[in-house]
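ESCALATION

Customer reports they have been waiting on this structure for their group meeting. Please prioritize. Original submission:
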Amino acid sequence: MKQLQITLVRSLIGRTESQRATALSLGLRKIHQSVVREDSPSVRGMIAKVSHMVECIEIEA
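Update from on-call: job pushed to the front of the queue and completed.
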């Protein structure tokens, strides 16, 4: 199954509360921190909401 490596590349400072909550729910707290999540529609939706702050790479499991 495909997985996604998500990296926070922009700060959470000055973002709306919902964008901060979305980044935190993905597990991202610090700049340049990366997490690996399963590829699912809900994760894709969260990435789309904060797409201007994260980089996403598909990796094979």
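Sent to customer with the following note: The mean pLDDT is 96.
Escalation resolved.
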